[in-house]
Amino acid sequence: MPRYLIQFCYTQKSMKALIDRPHDRTEAAQRSIEGFGGRMLFFSYCFGEYDGVVIAEFPNHEAAMASLLALNSAGALTKTETTLLIPVEEAVRAMQKAHDTKTGYAPPS
Question: Do 57 and 3 form a contact (C-beta atoms < 8 A)?
Fold first, then answer.
């Protein structure tokens, strides 16, 4: 199944709710992902531009997108960024294909 890195930022209201009533959001995130046939592999909070990260796998891109649409429409987040993760074995095969394939492409001159 394809894997995705999902970075997110909470709204000010969501962050205040977490501070007012500290609790673990792992299970809520996991249920949301599982509702779309996915599986959460990692959940963590972080410093920096984003408040947290999730690594999840979904059966296909459509399921991943549906999950993210539902998540973003709930109003708890101000920003998400999703990155498709490519396993090393697939990347190496792509490198080999790039090496073996002659496209005739030339940069503009």
Answer: yes
What is the pTM assigned to this prediction? 0.88
| Percent of the chain surpassing pLDDT 90 | 94
pLDDT tens digits, 38-55:
999 999 999 999 999 999
Cα separation of 103 and 68, whole Å?
36
Residues paired with residue 80 on neighbouring β-strands, in sequence order:
8
The secondary structure of residue 37, as a DSSP letter, is T
Q: Assess contact for 69 and 52: CB atoms under 8 A.
A: no
**Is the separation of the CB atoms in 43 and 26 below 8 Å?**
yes
Q: What is the pLDDT of residues 48-75, one digit of tens each?
A: 999 999 999 999 999 999 999 999 999 9
Q: In what order do the strands lie in the sheet with 3-10?
A: 39-45, 52-57, 3-10, 77-85
Separation of alpha carbons 77 and 26, rounded Å: 15
Spell out the domains of the chain, with CATH numbers in brackets: 3-100 (3.30.70.1060)
